[in-house]
Amino acid sequence: MSVSLYNACAVVGASTLSYISFKTLSTLLFYLHSSKIQRYHHGHEPWALVTGASDGIGLEFVNQLAQRGFNVILHGRSETKLKKRLSELQPKYKTSFKLLVLDATAPATPEFDETVLSAVQGLNLTVVIHNVAGNGEAKVDMPMFLDFSAKQCDGWIDVNARFTTHLTRLLLPVLLKSQPGLMLFMSSAVTEMASPGASLYTGAKAYLEALTKCLNVEMKMQGHDIEMKSLTTGMVATTQTGRSEKDVSFVVASTRAFVRATLAQVGWSWGTPRITPYIGHWVQFGLITSLPTRLQDMIVISMVKKVQAQMAKRD
Predict the structure, then answer these.
(1) What angle in degrees, to the nearest 10, is found between the helix axes of 279-289 and 293-314?
(2) Distance CA 50, CA 229 (A)
């Protein structure tokens, strides 16, 4: 009996050690392998499209893609702001830029479709980055669900889920013409940890993660070479999060570090459709989600209060 128990414990121990070793090796390979973003820099004048490209993470994606030789379409709702960004970008790079001015809360009408398709007509589009977020208002708050108005509910759903869905409907066929292609969906740590003040944002991001998984399998099933990734993202120092460069740390990424990490994790055959590209976020999520739920909630509530305080100072 004791021998059988010993053998069972040995099997469990060996299995656990093997699993831990495999996860450790997989993690090291994931974060240490070289970037393969250039896999999507092919054909005549490859183009990338970045939504929410006026500021923050989106603008940094524009800069780093241009540095790698991609021509870039910048999407935003303010033509004035986009033109200002264009005037700053053009002297820095030899690549070309175009603008897509479109309100993410706009309904999907024939005019909507025409605007999007006109922006990419005749282009060798190989990369699409769905970065746009928010609720359609200039000021982004974190209200509890009981405080949402009907307009705010629609805003969070429209910007984070509906707009991205319709862009995907229009742009995926364009990517198929220029395979291999890449499509990234910006998700959030809120899908890992329930966050007060982010209920509709969480629901929309969970929807995008599920959409990414389905599209990833559909592309494989149909024999298409289109890489689909959703990015589980923690705190990044942007105006929208109320953080600045002085707040950058191991768990609060700068936009440069986050985008560099993201572009390093694409084009990899071992990859899964849902990734956490920045290692500081991965460590943070792993530590928090390993804790009891009650303690997780206490930590998340504390983090949310700090973000709310930062946002209040910004105002």
Answers:
(1) 130
(2) 14
- In this structure, are residues 261 and 253 in contact, taking their beta carbons and an 8 Å threshold? yes
Phi, psi (rounded to 5 degrees) for 46: -65, 140
pTM recorded for the entire structure: 0.85
Peptide bond into 277 cis (omega under 30): no
245-293 confidence digits (pLDDT tens): 888 999 899 999 999 999 999 987 556 899 999 999 999 888 888 889 8
Domain ranges of the chain: 36-314
Q: For the purposes of burial, counting CB atoms within 10 Å of the CB of 121, is it exposed (0-12), middle (13-18) or buried (19 or more)?
A: exposed
- The token duo for 194 is 């329930």
36-314 topology per CATH: Rossmann fold (3.40.50)
CA pair distance 221, 241, nearest whole angstrom: 38
